[in-house]
Write a structure and sequence with these properties.
binds adenosine-5'-triphosphate; about 200 residues; 6-stranded parallel sheet; about 45% helix; alpha/beta; Rossmann fold; binds magnesium ion; 8 helices
Length: about 200
C-alpha cells in the first residue's frame, strides 16, 4: 500500500536528518585526490573531461596530457585548442601501438610524456590534471608502474589527478582515492556500427 502524504513527509524528515548527520561525520579532504577511470565500457575519458568542465566552472587551473591519441583528431582536442588560455593541453602519444609499430619510439614518447606529467603534478600550478590513457602505457610496460605510482602520490597537495584507460594496474588502484570501473553492457561497435564524430572522438 502506498504511504499517505503525512507518512511520506515523516519518512522524508527522518531521511533528511540521517543524511545531515552522515555528512557531519565527513571532513573536507584538504588535498587533491588520485582518481582512476578504468574498465572495458565507454566513458573513461569523457567522464574525466566532464570533471574538467566542472573544475573550469569554478575557475580552477586545469591541464590535460594525452598519452596515446597523438595523431588522431578528436572533438575534445579541437575544443581544448580553442580555449588554450583556460586549458593546458599536451598531446604526447604518437598514436596507437598498431599505428606506430615502433616500440622504441613509443617508449621514448611515454618517458617524455611522464616527465611533462611530473612537472604538471608537482608544480602546484594546477587544481586538476588529467593523464588520459596513462593506463594503456603502463599496460604495455612503457613506464615503470612503481615509479608512476610514486610520482602520482608525490603530486602537489592542491592537485587532483585523474588517470584513465583500460587495465589500470593493481598498484595504482591500491594507491587511488577513487576508482571507477566502467562496465560494458552494450556498445554499438559490437553491432557493427562505426565510431562517430562528436560521440566517440
Ligand atoms: P570515451 O572517450 O568515449 O569516454 P573511453 O575513454 O572509455 O571512451 P577508450 O578505451 O579510451 O574508452 O576508447 C577509445 C575509443 O573507443 C572511443 O572512441 C570510445 O567511444 C570507443 N570505445 C569505448 N569503449 C568501447 C567498447 N567497449 N567497445 C568499442 N569501442 C569502445
Ligand atoms: Mg579513453
Amino acid at each position: 500500500m502506498t504511504d499517505s502524504n503525512e507518512e511520506h513527509k515523516e519518512k522524508m524528515v527522518d531521511m533528511k536528518a540521517k543524511h545531515r548527520a552522515n555528512i557531519k561525520t565527513k571532513k573536507r579532504s584538504g588535498r587533491g585526490l588520485l582518481m582512476v577511470n578504468t574498465g572495458d565500457g565507454k566513458g573513461k575519458s569523457t567522464a574525466a573531461y566532464g570533471t574538467l568542465v566542472r573544475a573550469l566552472g569554478w575557475g580552477h587551473d586545469v591541464a590535460v596530457l594525452q598519452y596515446v591519441k597523438g595523431t588522431w583528431k578528436t572533438g575534445e582536442k579541437e575544443f581544448f585548442k580553442r580555449f588554450s588560455d583556460l586549458i593546458r593541453l599536451e598531446v604526447m602519444g604518437e598514436g596507437f601501438t598498431w599505428e606506430t609499430q615502433d616500440r622504441t619510439r613509443d617508449i621514448e614518447a611515454a618517458e617524455k610524456a611522464w616527465q611533462v606529467s611530473m612537472e604538471m603534478l608537482t608544480s602546484g600550478d594546477y587544481d586538476l590534471v588529467i593523464l588520459d590513457e596513462l593506463n594503456i602505457v603502463l599496460r604495455n610496460d612503457y613506464l615503470d608502474k612503481e615509479v608512476v605510482k610514486d610520482g602520482l602520490l608525490a603530486r602537489h597537495p592542491r592537485t587532483t589527478v585523474i588517470v584513465t584507460g583500460r587495465n589500470a594496474p593493481d598498484n595504482i588502484i591500491a594507491a587511488a582515492d577513487l576508482v571507477t570501473n566502467m562496465e560494458m553492457i552494450k556498445h554499438p561497435f559490437e553491432a557493427g556500427i562505426k565510431a562517430a564524430r562528436g560521440i566517440d572522438f
